[in-house]
Amino acid sequence: MNVLLAIPFVVPLLGAAVTLLLRRTPRSQQIVGTLTLAVVVADAALLLRETADGTVVVSQAGGWPAPLGITLVADPMAALLVLVSSVVLLIVLLYAIGQDIGGLSRATPQIFHPIYLVLTAGVCLSFIAGDLFNLFVGFEVMLTASYALITQAPTRARVRASMIYTTISLTSSILFLTGIALVYALTGTVNMADIAEKLGAAPPELRMVLALMFFVVFGIKAAIVPMHFWLPDSYPVALTRISAIFAALLTKVAVYAIVRTQTLLFVRDDISAVLLWAAIATMLVGIFGALVQDDVNRVVSFALVSHIGYMILGLGIGTVAGIAGVIVYLVHHIVVQATLFLVNGLMRQYVGHTSLRAIRGLTTVSPALALFFFLPALSLAGMPPFSGFIAKVALFEAGIAAGGWLVHTGVAVGVLTSLLTLIAVFRIWTRAFWGTPLPDMVEAKEQLRRGANLGGLRFMTAMTGVMVGVGLFVMAAGGPLAEVGFTAARDLVDGDAYIEAVMGEGAG
Amino acid sequence: MAVGVPGEDRPYLAGRIATGDGGPPEDWEAPRERWLSTVTRPAFGPRSVLLEVVARILIPAILTLAVFLLVAGHGRPGGGFAGGLVASMAYVLRYIAGGRHELAAGVPMRPNGLLALGMLIACTTATLPLLFGKPILYATKWEFTLPVFGHVKLLSALFFEAGVFLIVVGLVLSVVAALGARMEAEEEEMRQEQLQRHSRERRTGADGGGGR
Questions:
Q1: pLDDT tier at B30 (50, 70, 90 boundaries)?
Q2: pLDDT computed for residue B20 by the predictor
Q3: Is residue B130 within 8 angstroms of chain A, CB to CB?
Q4: Any bridge partners for residue A136, and if so which?
């Protein structure tokens, strides 16, 4: 147990140290990075096998008993998310390696590898942290790495975007720390299981303020409307390998933190109306933003904001079925967003930019690219039989079963948003993929073909294909996935198993 | 401590520019005593002998305090993080007094190397207990008696803290290198150019028979 829980964040940190020492030999850096992430994937798979039946795995670091020491916890939800994240991280790393081998990127690899692995450690630690302060540490490790990553290959636009991004993130971090201090003042502990037991006795008004505070803290990071404005300004500007990881993982880690804190620490009824309103606003504002953008990257970024709303909707519904829907949606969304951003990166390689005004007929230029865009795009819009359909149906069913006019409105808006998403992706499809290619696009492709970069480009395309394959696998594994989702959701809504596992037998 | 003769050979860069605007006479900045290990003047501001002397005296004491904090960290205020910060302050002081060459002379390896080494030490000591079936970060205690120190209690956590210490020093130094030293290098380049331009002007002025 101890080993399984330690590996997801210690091994990437070790890998970061080694790649930092090996910065003169890019090839060995690539090997170390890939091996590190492969180990994390294998470990996460074992962890999921261990917890899939609802077992909560606990390790008390240093042997100090909870709530005194650092607690590492993996329940089915955490294990599932560690697995999906590490798979996505591994594929994106391979994509980046392909790009570097082909000499197609301006990133500085000797810095990229260590920081990327530190980011991995931060993401994994956030998922398995058992106390609020360690969650904060995980977040900070992840965010600090992301500050460095977003300015890779600095241009004026990237530096500007990183200023916005860093300022907003630091603001949310300060609020987070303040929230932890308030919780500690109220309960005298930062261990989440311990807080869950003690916070129930706190005055409801105070509890509600704290719940709102944590919602705002993670809401900023998850880009929930009206705290979303920074995301479409910063993500699309970064390098593809980086924006893919940011879009796939960083917002989802924040959603995970919202789910964890709101279900475990706070009573559901406290702020569920706020959650539902925020979900409705997020879905609508995001998708209307996506409909008017001219850059593919920005369309996908706004769609990302919009679809965060679905997960908040599921949390607002708050039943076991609703939260199971959130978990399935998280998995689906991580994979689909990563795929779409990788496809955009390939588009940038082929055409040099991603502006819809000057792209035509990509289907002729690269049929594989068209296929790799088409499948995740339909999945994002929620067309059957893709994973997006499974996730959305799970959420809508939960909503209809739960009742209440606000929940029903949320479901209706969800259906509408999914139709609007279909319009948004078909707008990209008809503009960029159909038609005859523009002359300069054909020329650009010829130039690419003449250059010696073809091997790297092929590898990148293959990795994008693998990511599409992972998406299809999520679809095919929809049944078992939903099962794990339900097991995890029962644990989350109930909370007893988690608290007992952390605090020991005597607790209850 | 002999008083230097004005116009003596000076290894320092660019005394003239710094004193050109009604400041102290130019030989004011001539070195009479080597307080720090390098002789290149920092590009920013005039040389401060006071700062150099203070740095020379304080740095050993600061580093000793840092090691004390590192060792005392278990049970008393201190630890790797606090110790690392104090130690890096010694280097920052040295940098402010002597510039980037001075900093480079005082650090055994590049900041990146320190970071990596510290991370390796910290991660390895954190994971070693896993091999013995203990949870991560588990610490064991050795007690023994040494001739001079007497009864000594050594915790394996000390090695972890040493890793943290190195990480903190490496981090602060890389911040100094990225923000201070690079800017300083650019300024030094500018100063060199300015100096060349000045001397060229002076030469042409002399050749032209004192027209200006």
A1: low
A2: 47
A3: yes
A4: none
Among A50, A53, A38, A37, smallest CA distance to A5 is for: A50
A7, A10, A59: best mutation site toward chain B, by most B Cβ within 10 Å? A10
Q: Is A14 on the interface with B (CB under 8 A)?
A: yes
Tens of pLDDT, residue by residue over B151-173, are 888 888 889 999 999 999 999 99
Contact A10 B127 (CB under 8 A): yes
Lowest-confidence pick of A231-235, A400-404, B71-75, B193-197: B71-75
Chain Cα centroid distance, residue B128: 33
Q: Cα–Cα distance between B28 and B12 in angstroms, integer?
A: 12
Strands (E), chain B: 141-146, 150-155
In contact, A315 and A323? CB cutoff 8 Å:
yes
A327-380, pLDDT tens digit by residue?
999 999 999 999 999 999 998 888 888 888 888 888 888 889 999 999 999 999
* A137 contact B CB<8A: no
Domain ranges across chain B: 49-199
Q: Find tokens 């990075």 and name the residue.
A: A33
Query: ipTM value of the model?
Result: 0.85
Give DSSP secondary structure letters for A235-251.
GGGS-HHHHHHIIIIIH
Q: Stretch B61-74: mean pLDDT, rounded?
A: 91
> ∠ at Cα A493 (A491, A496), nearest 5°?
55
Work out the end-to-end distance of chain B between its first and last CA atoms, rounded to an integer number of angstroms.
40
Contacts of A447 (CB under 8 A, 6+ apart): none
Whether B141 has its CB under 8 Å from any CB of chain A: the answer is no
Q: Residue A193 in contact with residue A260, Cβ under 8 Å?
A: no
**pLDDT above 50 (res B14):** no
> What CA–CA distance (Å, rounded) separates A82 from A94?
18
The verdict on A61 touching B (C-beta cutoff 8 Å) is yes
Cross-chain residue pair A23–B112, CB shorter than 8 Å: yes
**Among the listed residues A354, A369, A359, the one whose alpha carbon sits nearest the alpha carbon of residue A301:** A354
In this structure, chain A runs to a length of: 508
Tally of residues, chain B: 212
Return the pLDDT at A65.
84
In degrees and rounded to multiples of 5, residue B2 shows phi and psi of -65, 145
φ, ψ (nearest 5 deg) of residue A230: -75, -25
Structure tokens at B91: 């280097």
Dihedral (CA of A64, A69, A75, A80) sign = negative
Q: CB–CB of B83/B70 below 8 Å? A: yes
Which has more pLDDT, A151 or A36?
A36
Cα dist. A120→A38, A40, A91, A145, A414 in Å? 12, 9, 13, 9, 32
Contact yes or no for B161/B84 (Cβ under 8 A): no
Lowest mean pLDDT among A104-113, A123-132, A240-249: A104-113
**Distance separating alpha carbons of residues A350 and A236, to the nearest angstrom:** 17
What residues contact residue A287 under an 8 Å CB cut-off, 6+ apart? A302, A303, A306, A417, A420, A421, A424
Q: Which amino acid is at A90?
A: L
Residue A180 clears pLDDT 50, i.e. is over it: yes
Q: Which residues from B are below 8 Å from A2, CB to CB?
A: 130, 133-136
Q: Which of B136, B161, B164 to mutate: most A Cβ within 10 Å?
A: B136
Q: Please indicate whether, in this complex, the C-beta atoms of A17 and B120 are within 8 angstroms of each other.
A: yes
Distance of alpha carbon A274 from alpha carbon A312, whole angstroms: 10
Q: Are A191 and A66 in contact (CB under 8 A)?
A: yes
Ramachandran bin of A135, using left for φ above 0, alpha for ψ from -120 to 50, beta for the remaining angles:
alpha
User: How far, in Å, CA of A353 to CA of A292, rounded?
Assistant: 18
Q: What is the DSSP letter of A355?
A: B
Q: Provide the residue type at A373 as one letter.
A: F
Quote the CA–CA distance of A458 and A108 in Å, as a whole number: 21
- The predicted model scores a pTM of 0.89
